[in-house]
Specification:
Largest sheet: 9 strands, mixed
CATH superfamily of the largest domain: Vaccinia Virus protein VP39
Oligomer: single chain
Distance between the termini: 40 Å
Number of strands: 12
Number of domains: 2
CATH topology of the largest domain: Rossmann fold
């Protein structure tokens, strides 16, 4: 559990990361809610509102009738400071202080991968929604990893950051790849015996994954130790490839990474949870858009930037793969900004 200061720092960091993409993210939110609007004449409820990032992107007509729920005192106080008209209730998503059938829609931003009891949250959403009301969940940042890592704990597979290619080369960013646990343990043992630097550099980091059933918190922190450092990612890619080549020469099997999209995991979880509750899934895909704007002072060498489920690209020229088709290239002094959001919409049955 984060302290208030840690939570404030995390929310501030997310807001800074999102700031260059604000116009594109706001356009995506407006488009999704235009296509899948909440019922007229009833309030809209936001769950896990944090400090109010989603509120700033909501269309005015929706924002005017939105009530926010947030369990954290520090986040709720920050949300209150956004304006005197902000209506905030201190409550977790598992126990909403709202009458049954009162809401025309329920919305959330990067919430569902963080809830502890998904079944209880779905039941609460179903309870507060009027028949025909919609749940709209938006994910613009990387998912939390504890739950998928817990599922993988008994699988014999070790998740590592994708250091074998550009995650942005895929529609759903390929942020994680899986290695067979026995293969990785054998490679580390071989590298140690051969004096290869792979063992000394990464055996302590991978140790939590190589237990019979790894500790999820320790394994998640180990993953973040690699993923959070560009230098460490590059070192892992170089040493893993080098050690694998040396071991293959000694008749060991080559590296055979399996793809694992953490966003896809959340997509499957949402579809299963709401489908089992009788909801009709109306949208479950990445929605992307592009905007052109003048480059900021710290973007003078950049012609393109994008953010898709937490994966960010900053390029001096347009990349091979764009998120939103093939727009006109930016004019001199402008930058092309793209955002990709996993949008999930489920409608409560009317019967």
């Amino acid at each position: 559990m984060k302290t208030d200061d840690e939570l404030r720092a995390s929310l501030a960091l997310l807001e800074r990361r999102r700031a260059p993409y604000g116009a594109a993210l706001q356009a995506i939110v407006a488009d999704v809610l235009r296509r899948f609007p909440p019922l007229d004449g009833r309030p809209v409820l936001e769950i896990g509102a944090g400090a109010g990032q989603l509120r700033g992107w909501l269309p005015q007509a929706v924002r005017a009738r939105t009530v926010h729920s947030e369990p954290s005192r520090a986040a709720a106080e920050a949300l209150h400071r956004r304006g005197a008209d902000v209506d905030v209730a201190r409550a977790p998503a598992e126990a909403l202080p709202v009458a049954a059938g009162a809401c025309g829609g329920v919305v959330g931003l990067c919430v569902f991968d963080a809830v502890g009891d998904a079944q209880a949250v779905v039941a609460e959403i179903a309870r507060v929604l009027a028949p025909g009301g919609r749940f709209v969940h938006l994910l613009d940042m990387a998912t939390l990893l504890e739950q998928p890592f817990e599922k993988l704990a008994g699988s014999g597979l070790v998740p590592i950051p994708n250091v074998f290619g550009d995650p942005g080369d895929h529609e759903w960013p390929l942020d994680v790849v899986l290695l067979r646990r026995d293969w990785l343990a054998n490679l580390l043992r071989f590298a140690g015996d051969a004096g290869h630097p792979f063992a000394a550099a990464f055996a302590p980091i991978f140790a939590p994954f190589l237990a019979d059933r790894y500790d999820v918190a320790a394994a998640t922190n180990a993953f973040k130790t690699i993923a959070g450092s560009g230098d460490r990612r590059r070192t892992l890619a170089a040493l893993l490839t080098s050690a694998s080549r040396v071991s293959v020469a000694e008749s060991h099997p080559p590296v055979d990474p399996l793809p694992f999209h953490s966003g896809r995991y959340l997509q499957s979880r949402l579809a299963t949870s709401f489908g089992n509750a009788g909801f009709a899934v109306e949208l479950s895909e990445i929605v992307a858009t592009a905007v052109r704007r003048p480059a900021a002072d710290d973007e003078k060498t950049i012609r393109y930037r994008s953010l898709c489920l937490g994966h960010e690209r900053l390029e001096g020229a347009l990349p091979r793969r764009l998120l939103a088709g093939a727009p006109e290239p930016p004019r001199e002094g402008d930058i092309l900004v793209e955002a990709g959001v996993f949008a999930f919409v489920a409608r409560r049955p009317t019967g």
